[in-house]
Amino acid sequence: MRRGFDSHQLKGLSLMCLRSVSLLLAALSTLAACGVCPAAEYHAFRPGQQWLDDNGEVINAHGGGILHHEGVYYWFGEHKIAGRRGNTAQVGVHVYASTDLYNWRDEGIALAVSDDPDSDIVRGCVIERPKVIYNATTNRFVMWFHLELRGQGYAAARSGVAVADRPTGPYEFLRSGRAVVGQWPLNLDRTPERERWTQPEQDDQQLSRRRRRRDPDGEIPFFYFDFPGGQMARDMTLFVDDDGAAYHLYASEENRTFQIARLTDDYLDHAGDFVRVFERRLMEAPAICRRQGKYYFLASGCTGWAPNAARSAVADAVFGPWQELGNPCVGVNPANGLGAEKTFGAQSTFILPVAGREDAYIAMFDIWRPRNPIDGRYVWLPIEFTDDGYQIRWRDEWDLSVFDKP
Ligand code: DGJ
Fold first, then answer.
1. What is the residue extent of each domain of the chain?
2. Which atom of ligand 1 is closest in space to residue 347's alpha carbon?
């Protein structure tokens, strides 16, 4: 019996190999040309770098948040498209699923924009910072998001609510509106003078909205003008406490002051009790977590899509009082040369507690690319708690073993 190949056969074999390699390369370059790359398996986070899903497509879930349900993480975020139009909602809210946090399966569009011109979520509106929580009593998944009506810039400052029976949806849009209509905050004394400021005619006089905009440090906060019609809510997040109570945290009063409002037991509406916090501190991009009985807050300043310095705060209760701690960021993102003063070129969106790991929290941020929003990037970094607060240090690459105890 003959073993091995003669030189002629070997030459044939190597030609075949070469041909297969070149076919493979050609296929890869075709895929790359149409923006799709083969699915990669990740074993680490690479902040600021392109992140692909199981189909080899760039993950499209900006301003996002994560729900952990029955062993699976669901990442919800704004689906962006290329070009300036991508700053408005042309598709809806995208959802991905993962069990290891590195590798994400595309689960499609959880909440689709509508083609009905009378719908609040008609294509071309603004849908930002969607967050989903699970209600154990109703067994439903509840999505809240910041909604701006089509063609009205950022004036509507509404919250949208949608529900689904499965985490990945499809979500049914229920309604949108202003927050805590006609409700008085728990942490503000109700005096006759303040009551007067809530009367509609006050808005018609010298204190018109336009004038107030030019006079942001005026004495009378927007809260009073918005009392009858409902409070503004733009950048937002949701938080479910250990006792099952859920809260909506949002940039209100023309982004000058934050409000924290408890949700009804079914999580579909505001319950009515709320507080005004970080008064006149001009914050956006809220994220919150609970750790060892304390509540930690992460946010940004207000500079549109441009990065600024992050903010942090701590409290013993969700409703506060909150104590500001300063900028938690440390280090520099070598890809853009930006350090803590610009939050590595990013803006916060969520704090994710890692399931099954003690003291493991990930701070999630977005690097916005407003000229080509689809190219926005994600920055995920571990939170390191200190005696009096926490730090978020830049890392080029890291994995969950950073949370392993020595
Ligand atoms: C910053 C916010 O954090 C984003 O969600 C978005 O609303 C932009 N501003 C719009 O300029």
1. 42-177
2. 3
Task: Say if ligand 1 is within 6 A of residue 305 CB.
Answer: yes
CA of 232 to the centre of ligand 1 (A): 14
Distance, CA of 311 to CA of 373 (rounded, Å): 24
Residue pair 227/182 in contact (Cβ under 8 Å)? The answer is yes
pLDDT tens across 335-376, in order? Answer: 999 999 999 999 999 999 999 999 999 999 999 999 999 999
Q: Which residues contact 355 (CB under 8 A, 6 or more apart)?
A: 68, 71, 73
Among candidate residues 291, 287, 227, 292, the one with its CA nearest the CA of residue 253: 227
Q: How far is the CA of 305 from the centre of ligand 1 (A)?
A: 6
d(CA 374, CA 50): 11
Which residues on adjacent β-strands are paired with residue 98? 73
Mean pLDDT over 269-279 rounds to: 98
| Residues in the chain, total | 406
CATH class given for the domain over 42-177: mainly beta
Q: Is 64 in the pocket of ligand 1 (CB under 6 A)?
A: no
pLDDT digits (tens, 9 = 90+) for 289-299: 999 999 999 99
Q: Atom 9 of ligand 1 has which residue's CA nearest to it? A: 304
